[in-house]
Amino acid sequence: MSTTENPTGHESTQDQAPEHFEDPGLPYHRPRRADVDPKAANKAERQVAALFGLSILGTILAIGAYFTIDMTEEIDSIRFANMMIGLGIFLAMMGIGLGAIHWAKTLMRDHEMVEERHELRSSDEGREGAIQNLKDGVEDSGLGGTSRRGLLKGSLITAVALAPLSLLVPQLGNMGADWNTSKFAHTMWRQGMRLTRDPDGTPIKAADVTIGSAFHVIPDGLNELESHMLEEKAKAVVLLIRLDPRDLKIQEGREDWSFDGIVAYSKICTHVGCPVALYEQQTHHLLCPCHQSTFDVADGAKVVFGPAKRPLPQLPIAVDDEGYIVAQSDFHEPIGPSYWSRLKDTSDGLSNDTEGGH
Predict the structure, then answer these.
(1) What is the DSSP secondary-structure string of 219-261?
(2) CA 193 to CA 73: how far, in whole Å?
(3) Which run of H or E residues covers position 357?
(4) Residue among 240, 241, 260 at smallest CA distance from 250
(5) Per-residue pLDDT tens for 323-333?
(6) At a CB cut-off of 8 Å and minimum separation 6, what does 274 contact?
(7) Could you tell me if 280 and 297 are in contact, meaning their C-beta atoms sit under 8 angstroms apart?
(8) Radius of gyration of the chain (CA)
(9) 165 in Cβ contact with 172 (< 8 Å)
(10) Which residues are paired to 278 by β-bridges?
(11) DSSP 358
(12) Cβ atoms of 149 and 42 closer than 8 Å
């Protein structure tokens, strides 16, 4: 305390701040039930192992759903399979996360520790201290060689080893399967097969297609397929458009592939396979909504903008005796996305197949 004299002649006191503060120390440690009760510790250990077991079951569910549920027949089966695979992956990852958190909160040491700051330098003593800290951490976690928690270690190792399979198996199982060139080289279209409306399958007459109109088309009989209907539709869908014949630029070798301005092109974008279905009447452009690849229908569906590398395949069409639009043959080139080996692998086979109007 110090005293000063103010202008009125009275003394006043002022507090002086202390030069140092006392160290309050660490707060009182409240032990958890698992720290003092062996039964509680064993129960927590079983709970952690159960969470890791849930992760293992989730992995098994995801892999089992992928291999056992048929995803080629109905939309409902595809949705169910995707839901089961997604649920399995969720459980596989969630089980590991919740198990690790519960392990840390109930079984690992929770005492607060203080490490004094020291000069950062490289020394044998510092390295030994760091190694010892790592050993202490492993031992504290229950993963050390002297730990008796074999149930935890076994369940953790199994869950961590299996969990990636829930993600990798569906990916590796499909890798390359659908890129077989023969699958893209051939579709349902055959000589004389009628073009029908998607999705009801109503045949289309040439008189019904007015200039500027566009029809989403599937092959006749597609809806009656008993198996692989969705796969066949994904390859065979077509967009039918009628232009003023004066605006249509006939490609060399395709003089008889259209009828009075009516042309048919695959709806599958040659970039990554999205459905090309946005038609602009004034410019005769088809736009892919995924990456904005743009094709000129009046000029052989050539690419005028975007990342696509080749035109949309054209389906040769004609009109039968009853006035219905029919296919002259299958596509003369593979449909769908481009890839490095497509033309080399399919050029010979396509030329041989299409000569007979396969």
Answers:
(1) ETTGGG-SSSHHHHHHHH-EEEEE--GGG--PPTT-TTSSBTT
(2) 23
(3) none
(4) 260
(5) 999 999 999 98
(6) 268, 288, 289, 290, 291
(7) no
(8) 36
(9) no
(10) 287
(11) -
(12) no
* Lowest-confidence pick of 110-119, 125-134, 175-184, 255-264: 175-184
Report residue 114 as tokens: 């203080």
Q: How many CB atoms lie within 10 A of CB 142?
A: 19
Distance, in Å, from the CA atom of 54 to the CA atom of 93, rounded to the nearest integer, reads 9
Of the candidates 222, 211, 329, the one whose C-alpha atom is nearest the C-alpha of residue 260 is 211
Sequence-ordered list of residues with C-beta below 8 angstroms from that of 203, at least 6 positions apart, any chain: 194, 195, 196, 220, 324, 325
Tens-digit pLDDT profile for residues 17-69? 667 777 777 777 788 888 888 898 889 999 999 999 999 999 999 999 888 88
CB 336, CB 235: distance < 8 Å: yes
Q: What's the pTM?
A: 0.57
Give the number of residues written for the chain: 358
Q: Which helix (H) or strand (E) holds 105?
A: helix 75-106
Amino acid at 115: E
- Extended strands (E) in 60-104: none
On the 0-12 / 13-18 / 19+ scale of CB atoms within 10 A, 78 is: middle
